[in-house]
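Action item from last meeting closed. Structure (173 res):
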């Protein structure tokens, strides 16, 4: 759920560079914020998980309900190399189910549907009727962010218009 960390981990893995070097490169490309603390420490992903849990699973949870919020600050090139030897990589994963609500770096098999690189994000939903649904899309960069903000503003405006229309008394003849 956090393309910034995905870009950083991809750069570290592919270029065998440090976290700091990967952050610098991502920042130069406009993908990483000036202060990426909330991305790196898992806070951004944690907030998104809480929103998804409430919106899609009808939970009533807050940030305080998270059992764990871990980030990628301590991931090294060596960690990524060891993961690769096991046929995996490391991704920052937000997980919510009936018992768990957490964010932490996890080993993800290289052939897993959520194992996406660079600016891609992936969300896997497990449903009763449709079974598994995987949604993949770009999630970092100035154009992507501006596009999403515009879409959100339009949606808010539409919802506000709809609410205002509902408040109007019905027209009678």
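Sequence:
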């Amino acid at each position: 759920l956090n393309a910034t960390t995905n870009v950083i981990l991809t750069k570290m893995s592919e270029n065998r560079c440090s976290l700091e070097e990967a952050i610098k490169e991502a920042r130069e490309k406009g993908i990483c914020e000036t202060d990426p603390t909330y991305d790196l420490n898992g806070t951004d992903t944690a907030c998104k998980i809480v929103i998804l849990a409430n919106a899609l699973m009808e939970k009533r949870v807050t940030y305080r309900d998270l059992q764990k919020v871990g980030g990628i600050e301590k991931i090294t090139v060596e960690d990524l190399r060891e993961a690769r030897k096991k046929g995996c990589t490391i991704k920052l994963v937000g997980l919510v189910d009936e018992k768990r609500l957490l964010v932490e770096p996890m080993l993800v098999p290289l052939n897993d549907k959520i194992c996406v690189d660079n600016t891609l994000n992936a969300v896997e939903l497990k449903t009763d009727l449709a079974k598994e649904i995987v949604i993949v899309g770009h999630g970092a960069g100035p154009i992507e962010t501006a596009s999403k903000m515009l879409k959100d503003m339009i949606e808010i405006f539409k919802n506000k218009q709809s609410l205002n229309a509902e408040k109007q008394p019905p027209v009678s003849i």
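Note appended to the action item: The radius of gyration is 19 Å.
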